[in-house]
Design brief:
With 364 residues, the chain is of the alpha/beta class. The protein starts with a strand and ends with a strand. Helix content is 37%, strand content 22%. Helix 2 runs parallel beside helix 3, helix 8 packs across helix 10 and helix 10 packs across helix 11. It is built from 13 helices and 13 strands. A hairpin with a 6-residue loop joins strand 5 and strand 6. The chain has a 6-stranded mixed β-sheet with strand order 3-2-1-4-7-13. The protein folds into 2 domains: 178 residues, 2-Layer Sandwich (Nucleotidyltransferase, domain 5); 164 residues, Nucleotidyltransferase, domain 5, CATH 3.30.420.
Amino acid sequence: MSGELFIGLMSGTSADGVDAVLVQSDDTGSRLLATHHRALPKHLRADILAFRQSGDDELHRLATLDARLADEYAASTSALLTDAGVSAEAVTAIGQHGQTLRHHPSGDVPYTVQIGDPNRLAERTGITVVADFRRRDMAAGGQGAPLVPAFHASKLAAPGIATAVVNIGGIANVTLIAADGSVSGWDTGPGNTLLDAWVSLHLGVPFDDAGRWAATGDVIRPLLADMLDDPYFTRPHPKSTGPEQFNLDWVRSHLAGEAADADVQRTLIELTAESIAGALVDASPEVVRVCGGGARNDLLMHCLTERLSDSEVTTTAAVGVDPAWVEAWAFAWLAEQTLAGRPGNLSGVTGARGPRVLGGIYPA
């Protein structure tokens, strides 16, 4: 097999599981060879989600979660390699995003916390690990997020065509690649995080499959307007956010009186679509490529397509990249950048003082 092999690992805001990809990279570019998704154990997911609020004995909880998640990453890596019929010795490195527990890019002392001990992962797999990508960008004055726009620009845009890549994970972010190749990007606000939290609370399922439950409800226009008045949506970029800001308490703070649960879910769909479309209105992209879990929400995709009627709106599958695996692939690419001594951030996106080689390297 020619070229180098890299693994990308991603566990997103929902903490529902680990996405793992095996990527082959050579002078002609990179190709996706194999994928694997591993659901996180329910008790581990519950402990991760609980950590988003302050609680007792946080240092012990943080340390044990760090180790437990690393073991899940190692199991995901092993399953991926088994599926692909590839040995660990053949892999150059793992790019591991880590599970974000807290992200506070503003204030007197900005910080971000990701877990999934890379030392333990390197020891369990026998593969070099590149991790802790965000903190170097933050040390240089950046937001530490989003980091995927550099990958989007390299993989998902065509020269001379103004393109927007919209990643709808727990938090939604946009990458704008102008026709001249210049790149900007930022977190637009909630993607799936509020949708998942609301449906889990009321139906006991992790997500609203294809938006079917939301489709039974009606938009509550005063609620939508009130939520869109949140200062985050009009704050200048660079900017990033997370479930620390957009969570169930935030939704409840905007509710006034009784509201049908499905109507709230429908309104949250509109919130995600409207905040994304609002971020793109001045850019007027020719094409919009959607990736992340939101690409599987048919109602959300319909709402976006309606709002962006002057653009060609598709998922990233239109350019040969399965939308489910874009983020994991991005961190395989970032690991390759780090090992080659190349910057992984875009200062125009994160606000850092300049390009930086990101992450720490944990040898096998």
